Amino acid sequence: MEAILRVMPLHAITEVYGTEGLSRRLDLELPPTGRAAVASAARWAAELHRDQRRTREPYLNHPLRVTIRMLSRYRVTDPDVLVAGLLHDAVEDQPVTVADIASRHNERAARLVAAVTVPPRPPGADRVDHYVTHLAGPLAGEPWARVIKLSDFTDNGVGLIHSTGPLVRRSARKYEAALPILRDLLDRADTPLAPDVKTHIHRQLDLARERFTAILTG
Questions:
Q1: pLDDT tens, 54-113?
Q2: Has 92 been annotated as catalytic?
Q3: pTM
Q4: What DSSP string describes 61-100?
Q5: Which string of DSSP letters, residue by residue, matches 155-192?
Q6: With 0-12 CB in 10 A as exposed, 13-18 as middle and 19+ as buried, what is 133?
Q7: Catalytic residue among 29, 51, 93, 126
Q8: Which residue in 92, 107, 187, 206 is the catalytic one?
Q9: CB-based contact 45:84 (threshold 8 Å)
Q10: Higher pLDDT residue, 55 or 215?
Q11: What is the rounded CA–CA span in Å between residue 83 and residue 81?
């Protein structure tokens, strides 16, 4: 099974083996350095998201895929970035603060989570404008947070085709508006990804755009 998990696409692992398969894939990908910290964050994420679901799956699958993608596709081995990937939705979705993450892990991981956390939308503010403004703000000064957001967006955007329900079209409109900003963030010289990884992510953003178009015109 391990040989299969190493080569399966992440959404295929999700469909066939579920959360257990994704957790095992994460364990297989982890480098020795920082392994204990990342494993601790994975356990905390499992606890925080235990009762949450997305449209067709346990919510935990999402931060697992975000983190595995950074390991396997983006070649990220920095434990703080991986910890932040696992906890990137903790502040938005749970009664967890950035200070809690700093206390349990460290200030840098907490700062990265803060940078990718979309703040509460003010009353009357347009939901798409609010999201896009956030992307253009905190991420500008946090290169590693851009990497987390790109993996998060890939999972949400490319993976949107796997979702159903009335929110799919709304999400497609929001994500489509974000594409130009994400491409700009990706192409910045200080975004810490190899050129071939950036090319791969651009292809993923192209695929996301095709899927948004299909959803919005279908």
A1: 878 999 999 999 999 999 999 999 999 999 999 999 998 788 999 999 999 999 999 999
A2: yes
A3: 0.95
A4: HHHHHHHHHHHHTS----HHHHHHHHTTTHHHHSS--HHH
A5: HHHGGGGG--STHHHHHHHHHHHHHHHHHHHHHSTTS-
A6: middle
A7: 93
A8: 92
A9: no
A10: 215
A11: 5
